[in-house]
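Quick note —
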Amino acid sequence: MNSSLTVLVVVFALLAFLLLVLCLWTRWAYWVKLGLVLLVTLFYFQAYDAVRASLGWAVVEPLPKRFVLLAAVFDEPNKERGSKGQIFIWVNAMEDRRPAPEPRAYRLPYEKDLHSILGDAMKKNREGITQVGTAEPKVGPKGFSWLRPAGDEKVGLKFSDLPRPQLPEK
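Predicted structure written out below.
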């Protein structure tokens, strides 16, 4: 556990203690106390997601439009475990035609086509040919997108070789 996470845990404990003091020793109406408890509870869940994303865990967000592929790990579907399968990829987003200084991990739903595309790109990466990817959302079923679980959005990926840098003449 790193020091910033320890500080965050202490701050949460202090916040819970202050809420307990307010709820026990004030004469506020019960609906005010209940509202405070619900507000702090929602804050805990939001803070948990923010901390989880900041610690380097794979996020379920859309991929950047252009990126440099660093690595990919495949968790194939398994009926015995009840797993639908996932693909984890680590990329550097392209900013102003240059890779971002810090990589990011993303989690995608498992698809055989995506597995083969990323597998081919990883083979080229191991051969020393850097791969630049472009992400395009696939057109999925019509309907309410907010009803689908997070991370179920399909994505179309295309990879190309990063051109060798042109050195100036001497």
